Amino acid sequence: MPKYYEDKEEDGRACAGVREDFKACLLQHDCVVKEGKMPSECLKEGHCKGLQVAFFECKRSMLDTRSRFRGRKGY
Fold first, then answer.
1. Cβ(72)–Cβ(19) below 8 Å
2. How far is the C-alpha of 35 from the C-alpha of 61, rounded, in Å?
3. pTM flag (> 0.70)
């Protein structure tokens, strides 16, 4: 779920909501916090896989010529 804050700066980049949630998921995961591993190592282990796929789909939809009609995926 996207996180909404009242006094949060607006990020105008594409896929900003998915990017923020993906980053928060990785940085707050037990793999990073308790075990002290790098977020890239936790990704290789398969943590936050759903958000990783959603972020990839959103970025890929930017290159898809059909997205002109359908709109970008993500939030």
1. no
2. 35
3. yes
